[in-house]
C-alpha cells in the first residue's frame, strides 16, 4: 500500500493552510463544500486523521466518517428539499480517486436533474449560501 502523503489538499485544509467553507465539524471528521460542485450542496466528508482511502482506513475512521456522512446527508436532503442523495467514494487512481485522503462526496439530488460535469469552479457566494442551507438543517 502506498504511504499517506501529508501534502495532499485535504491534509492542508485540516492544518488550516488552505481555506474551506466548513459545513460541520466534530472531533473526528470535517465536512466542507466542494469548490467544483457537481450539484448544488455538493460537500465532502473526511476523517481528521491520515488515511488514503477505504482500503487502508481503520474501523474507527470509517465509523466516524459514516456517522458524519449520514448526519450531513440527512441535512442536505432537508436543506435542499431534495428527492434523494448520491454518495460517491473513489479508491486509488484506477477507481477514480484524485485526492488521496479518504473522502465521501454528498450530492443532494432532484428527480430529473443531472449532475454537472466535473472540473468546473463554482461561484463562491453560491457555495457559501448552499453551506448555510445545510448548516441550518443540521
Write a structural description.
This protein is of the alpha+beta class. It is globular and about 40 Å long. The protein is 30% helix and 18% strand. The longest helix is centred in the middle third of the chain and has 21 residues, at 59-79. The protein has one domain: HIT-like (HIT family, subunit A, 2-Layer Sandwich). It is built from three helices and five strands; from the N terminus they run αβββαββα. It has helices spanning 9-14, 59-79, 124-137, and strands at residues 22-25, 29-33, 43-47, 84-88, 104-109. Helix 2 packs across helix 3 (124-137).
Question: How would you summarize the topology of this molecule?
Answer:
Blueprint: H1 9-14, E1 22-25, E2 29-33, E3 43-47, H2 59-79, E4 84-88, E5 104-109, H3 124-137
Antiparallel strand pairs: 1-2, 2-3, 3-5, 4-5
Q: Round the mean pLDDT to the nearest integer and report it.
A: 98
Largest sheet: 5 strands, antiparallel
The main sheet orders its strands as 1-2-3-5-4
- Sheet-strand content, in percent, reads 15-25%
The unreliable regions are: none
Q: Can you tell me the overall shape?
A: globular
CATH architecture: 2-Layer Sandwich
CATH topology: HIT family, subunit A
Topology pattern, helix = H, strand = E: HEEEHEEH
Q: What is the CATH class name?
A: Alpha Beta
Secondary structure: helix percent: 25-40%
Total count of strands: 5
The rounded distance between the terminal residues' Cα atoms is: 37 Å
Summed up, the helix count is: 3
